[in-house]
Amino acid sequence: MSFRSPFPDVDVPALSVYDFLFGSIDEADLDRSALIDGPSGAVTDYRTLIAQVDGIAGALAARGIGVGDVVGLLSPNVPAFAAVFHGILRSGATATTINALYTAADIVKQLEDSGAKAVLTVSPLLPQAAEAAEAVGIPADLLIVLDGAEGHPSLRDLLAERAPAPEVSFDPATHLAVLPYSSGTTGRPKGVMLTHRNLVANVCQINPRMGIGRDDRVLALLPFFHIYGMTVLLNAALSNRATLVTMPKFDLVEFLSLISERKCTYIFIAPPVAVALAKHPLVDQYDLSSIHTVFSGAAPLDKALGGAVAARLGCNVRQGYGMSEMSPVSHAIPFSDNETPLDSVGFTVPNMECKIVDPATGEEVEYPTGDGVSAAGELWCKGPNVMAGYLGNDEATAETLDADGYLHTGDIATVDAHGVVRIVDRLKELIKYKGYQVPPAELEALLLTHPQIADAAVIGVLDEDGEEVPKAFVVRQPDSSLTEDEVIAFVADRVSPYKKVRRVQFIDVVPKSAAGKILRKDLRAPTA
Ligand code: 4UV
Predict the structure, then answer these.
(1) Which protein residue has the closest C-alpha to ligand 1 atom 17?
(2) Is 302 in the pocket of ligand 1 (CB under 6 A)?
(3) Is residue 143 pLDDT above 60, yes or no?
(4) Could you name the CATH architecture of 14-23+42-170?
(5) CB of residue 163 inside a 6 A radius of ligand 1
């Protein structure tokens, strides 16, 4: 037996993302502000945004890009991201959004794996983008630098072409809109195939209870390239004709100033920002009274921490749960719900069905009655927002999506008799650092390239603030005098900063199963 969302199903129109968001926009909404560039205050209204989306789609089509092609997008949160992202989708191409913190080597892997034909980026990221584009054979005229750079077309150049948006036809149920990368339950990052229907569905599923309204000024701090920012900010906020205030990178003073100057009302965060909001003395120096809700997701929010944010700011705090593979939101505490505790991720969103399965036996747990809570088990979810699979990786797809259409999340959850879900542990190997994915397999492979390292395993451990950080267990070669600091520096020199190993412990042997799989639970036990 499974359990369904307690809420009635919603209609998911069979439309492309563009038609869903902008196809029937009210004339009166065209003059509303869609985006405000946080740092400069420059405003883009809906009319201008849509014209830019059409112009970009036209310019891409003029370059032979359309249905069946993949285009890379490497950019922090700037207003042009919205135009470019939706321009790519409007052209019929598929957008592969790339983490703006990636190294050139990381970018190469994603461009290669996705088969991207063009890349759009910004000048501060041009060195790594150009190195990667060259490595995969993308010519300079298909490396578009939004704010301009010698030898590359700019956004202004594309828009000046005034090329009409192409007539494209595809089935929204099967055509891929985006390919974000996620390591899923194991291994290296893989292309998550999300269709137009997946993205439209998730907005329809969250809109009734997330409560983003026309008059909201939503702070767009969470990166648009990550599925949380993509669906909740770029798609849900725009679908409600709200205003996004973009912030390219986190800086506490900038964050607090933007909220108070631009009167932001709805703040979407990952838990580390909650730590700052609850504890940092600077917070008291800013007028944050415009905020009505802080919504946290992407990693577990501590209940007391969430409560401290609510008390200090005098606002609502809510939590949701999601995964790239679910476009991403499957669970959330409703906007209007002051009862559901913050140590939970709330209720299953409409149109979704879940199971909690004991990983040891493969049996579903008993569902509770009265005031009961189920036993913990792996959360499986099914619905119109669940991915089509991993690009070019049938094996990983088969391990994650079962024949009945359930996605095995790799997270351990409980459900109570009211349908409130709690994420209590993680079965999969993934580490979340400040909400970003750190795939242990990638760090382990890197550590093994060190001549003095015989074997290595990486897991997530909690730091003093209760935030997860990557820790390496390292087996040194005989006679090696390698130090912990040297291991940390070796990794730090080769990965982008959020993937750094932050703790090291030397051990004699990495515990492994008979099949050679690292027994991460055994590594966790003594550290816990
Ligand atoms: O694939 P991903 O990087 O995706 C995300 C998406 C999180 C979102 C997005 C929109 C929301 O509205 C929202 O509330 C959350 O993070 O990583 C997926 C994994 O992150 C962990 C869990 O292990 C997922 O499988 N995770 C995400 N949210 C939570 C969480 C949470 N609230 N509590 C515990 N773990």
Answers:
(1) 323
(2) no
(3) yes
(4) 3-Layer(aba) Sandwich (3.40)
(5) no
What are the structure tokens assigned to 496, written together?
């982008």
Domain 430-523, classified CATH 3.30.300.30, yes or no: yes
Give the nearest ligand 1 atom to 331 CA: 14
Residue 526: predicted pLDDT: 62
What is the distance between the alpha carbons of residues 388 and 325, in angstroms, rounded to a whole number? 9
Whose C-alpha lies nearest to ligand 1, atom 34? 300
CA 450, 455, 458, 463 dihedral sign is negative
Q: What does the pLDDT average to over 389-398? A: 98
Cα(228) to centroid(ligand 1), Å: 8
User: For position 319, what pLDDT does the model report?
Assistant: 98
Residue 298 CB less than 6 A away from ligand 1? yes
The rounded Å distance from CA 431 to ligand 1 centre is 11
Ligand 1 mean position to 61 CA, how many Å? 35
The pLDDT of residue 522 is above 70: yes
Q: Residue 75: CB partners within 8 Å, gap ≥ 6?
A: 81, 84, 100, 120, 121, 122, 125, 146, 224, 225
CA of 499 to the centre of ligand 1 (A): 17
Per DSSP, the residues of 127-192 read: HHHHHHHHHHT--GGGEEETT-BTTB--HHHHHHT-PPPP-----TTTSEEE--EE-TTSSS-EEE
The span from the CA of 164 to the CA of 45, in Å, is 20
* Residue 181 · residue 96 · CB < 8 Å: yes
- The fraction of the chain above a pLDDT of 70, given in percent, is 99
pLDDT in tens, 267-294: 999 999 999 999 999 999 999 999 999 9
Euclidean distance between CA atoms 118 and 138, whole angstroms: 6
Return the CATH architecture of domain 204-427.
Answer: 3-Layer(aba) Sandwich (3.40)
Is the shortest distance between the CB of 319 and ligand 1 below 6 Å?
A: yes
Q: Is 345 in the pocket of ligand 1 (CB under 6 A)?
A: yes
ipTM of the shown complex: 0.99
Q: Are 44 and 68 in contact (CB under 8 A)?
A: no
**Residues 10, 63: Cα–Cα separation, whole Å:** 38
Query: Is there a shared CATH topology between the 204-427 domain and the 430-523 domain?
Result: no
Higher-confidence position of 104 and 185? 104
pLDDT at residue 452 tops 70: yes
Q: Which two tokens stand for residue 451?
A: 């001549």
Cβ–ligand 1 contact at 411 (below 6 Å):
yes
Judge if the beta carbon of residue 344 lies within 6 A of ligand 1: no
Percent of the chain with pLDDT over 90: 95
Rounded-to-integer distance, Cα 220 and Cα 499, Å: 23
Return the residue whose CA atom lies nearest to atom 8 of ligand 1.
322
N- to C-terminal Cα separation, the chain? 34
Q: Where are the domains of the chain?
A: 14-23+42-170, 204-427, 430-523
Give the model's pLDDT for residue 1.
76
